[in-house]
Design goal:
This protein is mainly α. 75% of the residues lie in helices and 0% in strands. It is built from 14 helices and no strands.
Length: 355
């Protein structure tokens, strides 16, 4: 019985040619397309929906390839091909919204992606023209201040939890970090607003408040990223330093942190990319303005997410001009996030341990 099962499982002695899979895939997609075209030909207006074309084409391809592979190659290779098809399909489905988003933002944002957009604010602008310089400056300043607040606090908290933390205090800190990780951004904005109302009175709006709100969102991300990087530092490195008589604080400073620096830097960049697109807390505490404001400690400051929101939500007589500015702002924000992720990869590659 066992022998017959093995023979049945491994009876395939040949491999399908490499061209079979792509040819079958293209054939089923074409067949599905022509079938839907034939079914829709009787309607007044012929509209081809590509979603059912892709679904039925892929389904027919997967079933047929599995059956053919099972006959020729055996059960194991047929199952492997089926799983490979499912994984590849899942990957393609994950790429579809990303590609669609990037394509939509680029095609709509390029209309106002010009020099005027990056060199002018919206002061005294009604209708066409103007730019987002004030929003770009505000975004960079507020995010920069939030980073200056969050990175030291997050890294030091992670060092405490991994290297020193024991007992109730460490468990409480870990619990509150977990809670803060899931805090909605509007709650962070309300916290910053309530904090600044105590010192400056009701109706306060300033860039520093926006930085505080973003730091509330950034700190848990930095802590978690730093924790994970510190955990993977081999204990042998710490023990070797202790054996040489190096105190613990110096071991952390000279051995542990340099080893984990690449991962920590990557986590910081991801945290920045996480908060740079936040709208709700900045709309609440930083406000919005059409004028330049370089001082985050006084008056309202505009940021790119709020610029996109206000441009789209408060359209004037020339609606298309406002929509074009909103798309251009979204494209600028997407490019900034992409650059941050690229910098994170470069930092990780440069500072990662060699050898």
């Amino acid at each position: 019985m066992a022998t017959s099962q093995l023979q049945s499982t491994f009876r395939g002695t040949r491999d399908l040619p490499r061209w079979v899979s792509p040819v079958m895939l293209a054939g089923f997609f074409l067949a599905s397309f022509f079938l839907q075209s034939a079914l829709a030909s009787g309607a007044d207006s012929v509209e081809i929906n590509l979603v059912p074309v892709a679904v039925f084409g892929l389904l027919g391809y997967a079933v047929t390839l599995y059956v053919l592979s099972r006959i020729v190659e055996g059960v194991r290779k047929a199952t492997d091909r089926l799983v490979t098809t499912l994984v590849s399909t899942a990957f393609a489905l994950a790429l579809i919204p990303l590609i669609s988003l990037a394509y939509t933002v680029v095609t709509n944002g390029v209309a106002r992606f010009d020099m005027e957009f990056f060199t002018f604010s919206m002061r005294n602008i009604v209708g066409e023209g103007g730019g987002a310089l004030h929003a770009i400056i505000g975004t960079l300043e507020i995010t920069g201040i939030a980073t200056l607040i969050s990175v030291p606090v997050g890294i030091l908290a992670a060092i405490y939890l991994i290297e020193y933390g024991r007992g109730t205090i460490a468990r409480l800190v870990t619990f509150f970090v977990d809670v803060m990780t899931g805090v909605p951004s509007i709650v962070a904005g309300l916290f910053a607003y309530a904090l600044f109302v105590i010192f400056f009175g009701p109706g306060v709006r300033m860039g520093l408040g926006g930085a505080i709100a973003l730091s509330v969102l950034m700190i848990p991300v930095v802590i978690r990223a730093t924790e994970e990087m510190l955990k993977i530092v081999p204990n042998e490195l710490r023990e070797a330093a202790y054996a040489l008589g190096v105190p613990k604080w110096l071991t952390v400073l000279k051995v542990v942190l340099p080893t984990a620096l690449a991962g920590i830097a990557t986590g910081v960049m991801i945290a920045i990319a996480r908060v740079i697109g936040e709208t709700a807390p900045l709309l609440l505490i930083a406000g919005f303005t059409a004028s330049m404001n370089y001082n985050p400690f006084d008056e309202r400051m505009m940021t790119l997410p709020v610029f996109v929101y206000t441009s789209y939500a408060n359209q004037g007589v020339d609606m298309q001009a406002y929509v074009d500015r909103a798309w251009a702002g979204a494209l600028t924000l997407m490019i900034i996030v992409m650059v941050l992720n690229l910098v994170a990869r470069l930092i990780s590659k440069y500072f990662s341990p060699k050898g």
